[in-house]
Amino acid sequence: MVQATRSEVRRLDAVQNRTYKRSLIAIIFLVVTLVMTTLTLMNPGFMKGIARTSSGQAVIDRQINAKFDRLAVLLNGKKDGNTNLLTSSQTSALADELTDYTLGFHWFKTDNTALAKQLLRTIKSEVNDESTTEAQNIRDGLKKQGDSAVYTVITAFYLSDVTQKANLDTMFLIINVVLIIVLILSFISILLEMNDKLSKRAIIHEVTASGMWTGALMMILFVLLAMIPLIFNVEAITILDLGYEIELASSVFLEYVMVGAIIFIISTIPWQLSSAK
User: What residue intervals traverse the membrane (predicted)?
Assistant: First the structure.
């Protein structure tokens, strides 16, 4: 049976066979990656869970405290610095508001005033008498500003960038869905073409071989992406807070590596069975 399967593969034009295999690898890789990206990096619930991990919490603490430092400067509450004025529970509460606004299923956003008001309410409720003196001074300063405090929050938290990120997320989500549909249709089309030239056993052999390649590529690629924060100082990338986003995403990429390993292992079994006598 091994000889039969191999002879059938050989009967298929060599160039066309390589084209099919490359197409299958590309399609499987892109579909898996796009689906995982949609369910993880674009999912507010998942990303808030990542932010609760030890490494994620450290990133969130630095990110939110940096914005709170800017808020302190605008209110003359303290000089510019890198002091951790907020606790982890306080930074998490503010980060959750930003994540819910940015990620998830929503249409294009044009206004961030409601977000600023929510952040303002969260600051006033989270910063209590047990907080640092500097944090209490900032809270009191915001209360004294009255309605104009909303615009101070918008400036300090760079909410124009947050709105831009939210709209980019919407655009990428739409593109992801369209690409997934197109890629699935392309996958079906390739299978139909292969069905005219190969037996089912040979098709399974080729598809699972592509799955093995996909799993191997995912492990290699996402390990490299997960290592970026260890090699480069990504925190220096201040545009749209990309540095912090890359740090958070690095832990997600490690989960992608696990998915790649699972795909590789699962594909190996039917690949071996389709080659057996």
Answer: 24-42, 171-192, 213-232, 252-273
- d(CA 208, CA 216) in angstroms, rounded, equals 12
CA-CA distances (angstroms) from residue 102 to 53, 62, 232?
20, 19, 26
DSSP letter string, the chain: -HHHHHHHHHHS-HHHHHHHHHHHHHHHHHHHHHHHHHHTTT-HHHHHHHHTSHHHHHHHHHHHHHHHHHHHHHTTSS-S-----S-HHHHHHHHHHHHHHHSSS-------HHHHHHHHHHHHHH--TTS-HHHHHHHHHHHHHGGGHHHHHHHHTTHHHHHHHHHHHHHHHHHHHHHHHHHHHHHHHHHHHHHTTS-HHHHHHHHHHHHHHHHHHHHHHHHHHHTHHHHS-GGG--GGGHHHHHHHHHHHHHHHHHHHHHHHHHHHHHHHHTT--
Q: How far is CA 136 from CA 75, 84, 118, 141, 148, in A?
A: 12, 13, 18, 8, 18
For the entire predicted model, the pTM comes to 0.84
Encode pLDDT of 77-102 as tens digits.
555 455 678 888 999 999 999 999 99
Tokens linked to 224: 């490299």
